């Protein structure tokens, strides 16, 4: 497999000790909706499942429980948090979805979350994923749309806008248009029976969801300051606001698209 920067944001971020905490908080916020989508499409024992960008492994673990560990492949460019899955019998691979070959035979289910939004080649990657599906197989894509104006505290609003700008300029992330086009790209890639839903990931200051936002900001702080997007004072103000129970952040909407490959 190709060697790739071990971080979903490419060279912008450095690996640090808070990453597992961030991933666990993300799972806590998003997993219920993901699992509900799997239940609707009827994931069953024996389904061949691919989890792309497995992160800390919660969804791949759920799939192992439902489909059987031997039926699940979990991939990421950074697999250091997936040892327990490998011990359970899940096939864990360090794998770059942009460049590496298919990580197995045709799959009945492919899932990815918060990944295509960060890949400038997202349309080409989507075509690759569709080609890895078995006839009748399902693709589940989840990605974020961020509208910083929907934050009631100026410090967090500026910080969120700064993060969106930095990731757009340095990585090619698209938080403003990509997710809100779903499921159209899946249909354009030849999939059918498409459905889409959206969940507003509302944040109150001082809660675990606010901690998730703060961790993401802290990891990008050096780059934000170096790029002249935010100052140290801006970051300190945002840090204080994240702890304030009066903070209301409605900026993050998670779109979830489900579609099927024709038989």
Strand content bin: 15-25%
Which CATH first-tier class of one domain would you pick? Alpha Beta
| Second CATH tier, the architecture of one domain | 3-Layer(aba) Sandwich
Total count of helical runs of at least 4 residues? 8
Structural class of the helices, strands and pairings?
A: alpha/beta
GO molecular function, one term: transferase activity
Keywords: Transferase
Protein name: Methyltransferase family protein
Organism: Actinophytocola xinjiangensis
Walk me through the structure.
This protein has helices at 19-41, 58-67, 83-88, 122-132, 154-170, 184-188, 208-226, 232-242, and strands at 49-52, 72-76, 91-94, 107-113, 133-146, 192-200, 203-204, 248-249, 252-260. It has a domain at 10-145 and 173-201 and 250-260: Vaccinia Virus protein VP39 (Rossmann fold), CATH 3.40.50.150. The model is unreliable at 1-14 (pLDDT under 50). The protein is α/β, with parallel strands linked by helices and 263 residues long. Helix 1 packs across helix 7, helix 5 (154-170) packs across helix 8 (232-242) and helix 7 packs antiparallel against helix 8. The protein has a seven-stranded mixed β-sheet with strand order 3-2-1-4-5-9-6. Strands 7-8 form a two-stranded antiparallel ribbon. Keywords: Transferase. Pfam families: Methyltransf_23. GO terms for molecular function: transferase activity.
């Amino acid at each position: 497999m190709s060697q790739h920067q071990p971080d979903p944001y490419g060279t912008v971020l450095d690996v640090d000790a808070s990453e597992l905490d961030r991933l666990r908080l993300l799972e806590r916020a998003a997993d219920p909706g993901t699992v509900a989508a799997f239940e609707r499409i009827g994931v069953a024992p024996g389904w061949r499942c691919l989890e792309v960008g497995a992160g800390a492994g919660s969804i791949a673990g759920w799939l192992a429980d439902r489909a059987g560990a031997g039926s699940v492949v979990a991939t990421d460019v950074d697999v250091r948090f997936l040892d327990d899955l490998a011990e359970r019998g899940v096939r864990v691979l360090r794998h770059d979805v942009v460049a590496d070959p298919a990580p197995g035979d045709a799959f009945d289910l492919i899932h990815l979350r918060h990944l295509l939004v960060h890949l400038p080649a997202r349309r080409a990657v989507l075509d690759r994923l569709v080609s890895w599906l078995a006839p009748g197989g399902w693709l589940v894509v989840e990605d974020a749309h961020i509208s910083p104006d929907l934050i009631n505290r100026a410090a967090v609003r500026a910080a969120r806008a700064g993060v969106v700008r930095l990731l757009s300029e340095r990585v090619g992330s698209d938080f403003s248009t990509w997710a809100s086009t779903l499921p159209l790209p899946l249909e354009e890639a030849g999939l059918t029976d498409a459905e889409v839903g959206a969940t507003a990931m509302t944040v109150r200051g001082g809660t675990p969801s606010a901690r998730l936002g703060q961790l993401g900001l802290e990891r990008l702080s050096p780059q934000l300051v170096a790029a002249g997007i935010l100052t140290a004072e801006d970051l300190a103000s945002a840090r204080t606001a994240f702890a304030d129970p009066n903070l209301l952040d409605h900026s993050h909407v998670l779109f979830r698209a489900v579609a099927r490959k024709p038989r």
